[in-house]
Amino acid sequence: MQENNSVSGGPHSVWKNARNIWRDNLDALSELSRFEQTWRIFWLLGPFILLIERSPADAWVTMICIGFVFHSIKSNQRQFLNTFWVKAAFIFWMVCLTSAVFSKIPLYSITEAFIWFRFPLFAMACVFWLGTDKRFVYAMLATTTIALLLMCLILSAELYFVGQINGRLSWPYGDLTSGNYLVKVGLPAFMIMAALAVSTRRNIANLATLLLLVILIFCLLTGERMNFILCACSCTLACLVWRPNWKRCFILGALAFMAIFLLFQTKPEISDRFIPDFINQLPTQSNSPYYQAMMPGMVAFQQAPILGVGTAAFRKLCPELIQDKERLKCHTHPHNFYIQLAGETGVIGLVTGTILFISIIIFCLSARKKNPHNVFVAVAFIVPLSFFWPITSSSDLFGQWNNCFMWSAIALSLCSSNISPEKPTRE
User: Fold this and answer.
1) What confidence tens digit (pLDDT) does each residue in 18-66 have?
2) What are the residues whose beta carbons fall under 8 Å from the beta carbon of 268, sequence distance 6 or more?
3) Number of domains in the chain
4) Is 84 within a domain?
5) How far is CA 51 from the centre of its chain?
6) CA dihedral 184, 187, 188, 193 (to 10 degrees)
7) Which of 1, 37, 39, 367 has minimal CB crowding within 10 Å?
8) Surface-to-core class of residue 167, CB atoms within 10 Å of its CB (0-12 exposed, 13-18 middle, 19+ buried)
9) Residue 335 region, left (φ>0) first, then alpha (ψ -120 to 50), else beta?
């Protein structure tokens, strides 16, 4: 079998040369001006900044967007505007702004629609500016992994000193978003771990398996059901698309099942939350909390099918929308991206938003086609595919906190296009 033994190649090399990532990153920084060095370091600190709170996280995203705008103007960089997913993002943004203009609360909706664009703009900054050198992409993957382990240490401290409260963990934020961080920020690193766990040499596979199981268990401990399912399904797909060793696939599946089974046995409240409670709450009947949260979005779409009730306006208008529907309940969003698109931006926003999602997935798939021998490039498409999977409960599409986590992972996955292919060599 052929494997690439360079840092940018197959799974053997990624972990074998992990100790060289720091040195490679320093070499890459030394080739840049002091100004550009500062921006790269600031970007690489992102996974740790996201551990602090939503305001520092949003400031990190916003400052990188501002830096990218000035960089593009100064260097006269416009070529990235020809990329299809970039065009799709701008078109969708225009639809969101148009929808906001015709909303019952236009000032609020226009403001939300305008500032939302910082997230796809952040992704553009990463792909076409900060992450153009593969050495920085690998460094970001490394810092993401370190930040995930730091989050696990923080959650371990919470378990020791406080314990779970109603089956959930909330450190370091003080609210129930730690599981969101683990899965959404960490998904690119998870995909690599899963691929390595079933396809490479024993010592590397063992390390990848251990890291993967530890983070999966902590995801369970946070009480994040949908994020756990997203992570588990994504990891399974990553195992299947990158040269799987079926024996190792079976071992990994058996270890994961055993770890989850033992956790459920020792903490039956977690088992109840993840199995009977979850099944009973599926949106298959009107008493389901998921049904009650999602259906107001459909009501919004029925009342304004062309342009919706206004971008991000659902949270303000929901009580008025369902005032004669006692079974439904108002939340800040309808808990599904596509229902939210339909309700807030109408059929036009639903179509253009879906095109944006698909174009991002296709962009990552195109990178995989050009560079199939790189483990990260091969599995990167799974990240946007998982986030934009239509049949799932999801966070607020236009919300601040969810987007900081989600778009950091999407941006890193899009950076896989900057890892140039290398000719495989025989071992």
Assistant:
1) 667 878 888 899 999 999 999 999 999 999 999 998 999 999 999 999 9
2) none
3) 1
4) yes
5) 15
6) 160
7) 1
8) middle
9) left
Q: Taking Cα atoms as reference points, which of 47, 68, 72, 50 lies closest to residue 59?
A: 50
Q: Which residue range forms the structural domain that includes residue 124?
A: 2-284+330-426
In a domain, 337, yes or no: yes
Residue 318 is encoded by which pair of tokens? Answer: 């929901």
Q: Which of 145, 157, 278 has its CA nearest to residue 208?
A: 145
Whether the CB-CB separation of 305 and 348 falls below 8 Å is answered with: no
Tokens of 349: 């926003």
pTM of the model: 0.92
| DSSP per-residue codes, 280-327 | HTSTTSTT-HHHHHHHHHHHHHHHSTTT-S-TT-HHHHHHHHTTT-TT
What three-state secondary structure class fits 168? strand
Tokens standing for residue 97: 């702004």
pLDDT tens-digit map of 154-209: 999 999 999 998 889 999 998 889 999 999 999 999 999 999 998 767 778 888 89
User: Any idea what DSSP says for residue 173?
Assistant: T
Please report whether residue 360 resides in a domain.
yes
Q: 331-369 in b/e burial notation, b at 16+ Cβ within 10 A?
A: bebbbbbbbbbbbbbbebbbebbbbbbbbbbebbeebbe
| pLDDT value for 19 | 64
DSSP 235-274: HHHHHHHS---HHHHHHHHHHHHHHHHHHHHH-HHHHHHH
- Rounded CA-CA distance 25/192 in Å is 20
Provide the pLDDT confidence category of residue 2 given band limits of 50, 70 and 90.
Answer: very low
Chain centroid, CA 399 distance in Å: 14
Evaluate whether residue 319 is within a structural domain.
Answer: no
Q: Which of 360, 387, 401 is nearest to 227 (CA)?
A: 387
* Residue 106 burial (CB count, 10 A): 15
Which of 125, 90, 110, 118 has the alpha carbon at shortest distance from 355? 90
